[in-house]
Structure formats: C-alpha cells, structure tokens
Amino acid sequence: MARPVASTPHLVWAAGHFITFAAGLRYLIGVLFFSAGSLSRWYTVAYLGALVSYGVVVYKAFGVPQMNKAYVRRTAMDENVQYLFLAMYWWINKPIFLTLVPYVTFSLFHVLTFFRTTVIPMAFPSAAPAPAGKTETAASQTTPAKASKFVQTWVKKNYDPAMRFVAYSEVFIFARILLGAITLRNSLLAPLLYAHFLRLRFYMSSFTRAAFQHVGGVLDNLTNKPECPPFVRKGYLTLMDLINRYASTVLSVPANGAGGAAGSAGASSAASGSATGVEGAASSANRR
Q1: CA 262/CA 184 separation, integer angstroms
Q2: How far apart are CA 145 and CA 15, in angstroms?
Q3: pLDDT tens for residues 158-197?
Q4: Which residue from 164, 211, 245, 273 has the least number of CB within 10 angstroms?
C-alpha cells in the first residue's frame, strides 16, 4: 500500500493549528496560574498560528483577495473569513486571554484529526482504516490502529460538548469586551466588531443560539427578582431590546457558504472547509 502524501497547504494548515493550540494553551495556563506580564509573546504566537491556518482555508476557498464588490460579497458572510479577521484584530491589540479559548478549542480538534487522518497513516500505512465493505484484518488491531480508532471515537464523542463550550465562551467574550469598553479597558470598536461576528454565528450555529437563549433566560430570572434594583432590570431590558433589534435584521447567507471556523477535516486535505467542522461525521452535527 502506498503511503499517503499530505499536500503543502494541508501541512501548513495543520502547522498553524498546532502552533495555535500549543502556544494558546501555554498562554491560558500561564494567565490562570502565573503572571500574564511575561506571557504576551505566547498570545502573539498563538494568533499568528491562527492567521496561518485560517489564511490557508480562505485562500483555498476564495483565491487571491480582490478589491471589488463581488469578492467582498462572497467572503463577507463566510465564517472562516470572520474568524480570520477576528484573529487579526486580536493579534494587533492588547491581549484579552478569553478570546483565545475558541481558537485553542478548534485547534485541538483539528490537530487530533490531522494526527489520525494523516500522521498515523503516513507513519504506519497498515493502520489505515479498511475500505468500506471490507472486514478488519489483524493490522487493524495494532497499536497505531487502536490509537487512530481511539482518537476518532474521542473526537466524535466530545465534538458537541466542545462546540457548546465554544458558544458559551463567545457569549462571555462579548460580555467581557463590552464591559471593557465601558471601563475603557479595551477599544470601543471591539464590542461592535464582535457583535457583528456573533450575529452571524447566531444565524449559522445552533450551539450559539442555544447559548444565547440559556444565558438570556438566566439573566432574565436574576433581574426579575424582587431584590434586584429597578435600574438594573431597566438597563437589562434596554440592552436586550437593542440586541434583539440588531439580531432580527435579515441576513443573506449564501446557500453554498464556503465556510466556518478553522475548516473541516475534509477541508483540511484541501485546506478549505466548513464552520468549526472536525471530521465529516462531526461536521454534519454542526451544520446548524
């Protein structure tokens, strides 16, 4: 059996995700348990990896960037493009550690998928999955084959919980940067950009919709209690009214949307893909 060969874009895409995961995890752990002052380089490196991986996906999906309305229309509603521009924005601004959480989570799944679909078959050709309709051989019981099966099972089992985790983290990121804008801890532009991003995610992701509905329900109950000051309830209702008006504006999402966060595994081989998708089976669950 010939050993599978990964294309250069595929390898660059995977390298970007590995850098994002390794550097991002190092930064998040450092911020949580140590001082964040000397860790900013890891934050920068993590987003550099994200720019590489998303850049490959967007380039493969849309080609060389063009300064015309047709290109802008094709790319504006694509989730990969949205995540690419967000990564660029976070990369050039003051670190906000929460913003790395979604990227690190996506990269974990993509690194594991790359390991299963590319690294193991290249290093151990006998561990490649048997074609459909054929029975498993003794080779499928080897340690590499078992490792491949374990990774596949783990990814499918944890995909939905991870996407729910990402959805909640993105809601909390918005709360953090909105509060940061009010207290002048971050740019006033940040919540405006992120609100547009979340609006797109709300339309395209069932996980994001569920997260907003749950958080909204919790806040509604808390602000509706007798002990809650009236001005807090009034402020909450005003904010919810603004959010609902903004979210209710009709979006024109392309039927053949090319994208999503960090590309799918199918996209990984071509370096282009679907939103936050990891593997064909898991990806279908995410196509809201």
Answers
A1: 31
A2: 23
A3: 999 999 999 999 999 999 999 999 999 999 999 999 999 9
A4: 245
Q: Which amino acid is at 60?
A: K
47 inside domain: yes
pTM of the model: 0.82
- Domain encompassing residue 221: 8-129+138-286
**CA–CA separation, 226 and 216 (whole Å):** 18
How far apart are alpha carbons 282 and 114 in whole angstroms?
A: 14
Copy the structure tokens of residue 193.
């950009």
**Which one, of 243, 233, 259, lies nearest residue 191 by Cα?**
243
Does 1 reside within a domain?
no
Cα three-residue angle 98-104-106, rounded to 5 degrees: 120
State the Cα–Cα distance between residues 199 and 201, nearest whole angstrom: 5
Total of domains in the chain? 1
Single-letter amino acid, residue 40: S
Q: Is residue 211 part of a domain?
A: yes
Residue 2 within a domain: no
CB atoms inside a 10 Å sphere around CB 23? 24
